[in-house]
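Fold it.
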Amino acid sequence: MKKNNRIWSWLALAFGILYFALPLIGLLEFSLRMRRGTYSLDAYWVVLADPGFQATFAYSVVMAIATIIVGVVLVVPTAYWVRLRLPGWRPFIEFITLLPLVIPAIVIVFGYIRLYNTSSILPLTGSAMGTNILLVFGYTTLALPYMYRAVDTGLGAIDIRTMTEAAESLGASRVTIMSRIILPNVLVAVLSGAFLTFAIVIGEFTMAALLNRPAFGPFLQLMGANRAYEPAALSVISFAITWVCMGLIQVVTRFNKSLAATKR
């Protein structure tokens, strides 16, 4: 019986690997066939040399960094305060942070356009800077479930009440407690949320396209509508960026565990 269970477990694992790996292998193989009769990296060189790729990728990186900063400023104090003073509100806050997973991005961005169009009290869509700010808020909303859970898990691993009371007894202000005590102790959790946010922003299409911003997601769609091999190369590059972010999360987590074990 035990042997049969092990066989089924291996079969399920093999099926999972094939299900995820085969399309990626096919995509990679197709992206290398731009030169007739042989494999080459021509599609990648064409994509990397394209000014459109460079401009849109740089724009998305800037948007990702801005989103991470806004997310950290918004989530860390909120999660800290809820755990410290409002523990009864945690289910409600968690429900709010999960809403972006069930509300489609297209609904959120249409709500933004309706609320902040040029005839509204706050016409953010009337200028490029205002639309960029609106896009950052939209990305922050999309990344909220991942950033909040990462930070909340990090806060759950430390005794924030004792830390706060000790700091207050020494005369530390709220800003000092947050910046010099809480944030350094949840830095690994914040970095995990930051890497996830970066991966989400780099590949996001709906919000950037509907707000008419020059981001990487719409460029990928535009390239896919007009070229053959370059979109496959872009998709491989996008997957690679996501995997690098996931790998960095693992590295940071293991480094933190090693550091904690060394301190003990």
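The mean pLDDT is 85.
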